[in-house]
Predict the 3D structure of the following.
Amino acid sequence: MSDYIKWISGQIEQLKGWGLIIPDEEKAFEILSDIGFYRLGFYLFPFEKRYPAKVHREHYLKRGTSLDTITRLYYFDFDLRLILLKYISRIEIHLRTTIVNYMSAKHHNNDTWFVDDKIVSPSYARSFSEVYERIKLSPYIKWHHHNHPCKYAPAWKTLEYMTIGEIMDLFDAISNVTSRLDICKAHGIRSIKTFDNYFTAIRRVRNRCAHGGVLFDYKANGAMTCKGPVDLSNLPDRTNLNGAIRVIKFLTSNISHNRLADLELELQTLIEGCKDDDVLYIAIKVASGLK
């Protein structure tokens, strides 16, 4: 027996020792070779006897926990990431476009308003060169500088290569409160504080999706605000994924009601597909608030 086979076989025995039912060891070998023992452990968590305690984990599982259920939870999470990332990408593009259009129209004689310390905070204007070190590596920005000798490409080009976190930093740096409120209102939000709260949630979920992080038991560092257009008042937990998804739905509806209908259908289809396994469905509902 090769060292590799011994290694994976040892992992199977460890899982069985924790109480996991493994109907097909050959399939288990394939799953562990694909997903990995450590990553699979994230999906064992809701089925542990000491759930939801995350400290001093003993890993022992509730009676009847099957690898089939664990694997289905993993693929549910995988599909959920793909769905959310698709719609968050639309929101991110809309945010970037809104800021470019509003600010460039207001400052139409200044195509690099994002580094003008009369328009953005002086500290932001001074430090933007650090952000631009990465942006200027883009082939399109390189091409711009090849044809136009200047320090920065215009806003409609530069902002295209900024991350959602960098875009939010720019939004927060805009000195004129009325300008920021106009951008908020373009997203159906009337408060800068609520806007920041919503987009902080969007950014965190987006980063987890983009980097393959576990999503179903997502917990925000702080609760989503109830003081906004998204009704979160009836949620028992405003830190879990359900609150963030409500915000994603709201911001998607502000872009297109057809896209909102698509998002709701994709999510409902995904969740309905888990309802034939009560253990799986309850685990998803408890961890994420989705149902």
Notes: The first helix runs from residue 3 to 17. DSSP finds 13 helices and no strands in the chain.
